[in-house]
Every structure is written in structure tokens, then in C-alpha cells.
Amino acid sequence: MSRNILDLRGLNCPMPVLKTRKAIRAKLLVETTDPLSVIDLPNYCREDGHALLDYSEENGVHAFLIERGDRPLEG
């Protein structure tokens, strides 16, 4: 399985969602330390039609495995 890793540790809301939106192409592993990302990234996936395949948290780092949905990319 080919996937990219997007390290967003240290960035706060709304940057994790904005950078994820720009980077997603197929499967993307997003790592963030922003506590609000546990709300924001699942909502982003639902609103934009992407699949949140997996979530884990370890030592304050939140990891989200996201698969791009079939909606056309903007911009």
C-alpha cells in the first residue's frame, strides 16, 4: 500500500485541515499534535467525502489514515 505521510505536529487549528486538504491525493497518513484535530479532521473527511480509515494516538501524537474520496479536487 502506497501512502504519503504528512507531519503536522506543532500546528494548530485550522492548519492541520488546510494542509491536509491541499496534500491529499490518494492515501495520506496525517500526524498532528493539535487536540482539536480529533474533531476537525474527521469532520473534514465527512464533509469532503474522504474515508477516515484509521485513527490512533500515542504520546500526544494523533495519527489519521485518510483515503481520498472521489470528489474532484479544488484548485
Topology at a glance:
Elements: E1 4-7, H1 15-23, E2 27-32, H2 37-48, E3 51-58, E4 61-67
Parallel strand pairs: 1-2
Antiparallel strand pairs: 2-4, 3-4
Describe the structure.
The protein has about 80 residues and is an alpha+beta fold. The chain has one domain (about 5-65): 2-Layer Sandwich (Translation Initiation Factor IF3). About 30% of the residues lie in helices and about 35% in strands. It is built from two helices and four strands; from the N terminus they run E-H-E-H-E-E. It has helices at about 15-25, 35-50; strands spanning about 5, 25-30, 50-60, 60-65. Strands 1-2-4-3 form a four-stranded mixed beta sheet, with helices on one face. Helix 1 links the parallel strand 1 and strand 2 (about 25-30). The protein is globular. It starts with a strand and ends in an 8-residue tail after the last strand. The mean pLDDT is about 90.
List keywords for this structure.
Translation Initiation Factor IF3, 4-stranded mixed β-sheet, 2 helices, alpha+beta
Distance between the termini: 27 Å
Average pLDDT level: 90
Q: What fold name goes in the CATH topology slot?
A: Translation Initiation Factor IF3
* Overall number of domains: 1
Trace the largest sheet across and list its strands: 1-2-4-3
User: Percent range for helical residues?
Assistant: 25-40%
The fraction of residues assigned to DSSP E strands is 25-35%
In total, the number of strands is 4
Reading the helices and strands in chain order gives EHEHEE
Question: Major β-sheet, in short?
Answer: 4 strands, mixed
Shape: globular
Unreliable spans are none
Radius of gyration, Cα only, in angstroms? 11 Å
The CATH superfamily bears the name: TusA-like domain
Per CATH, which architecture? 2-Layer Sandwich
- The count of helical stretches stands at 2
Structural class: alpha+beta
Please identify the top-level CATH class: Alpha Beta
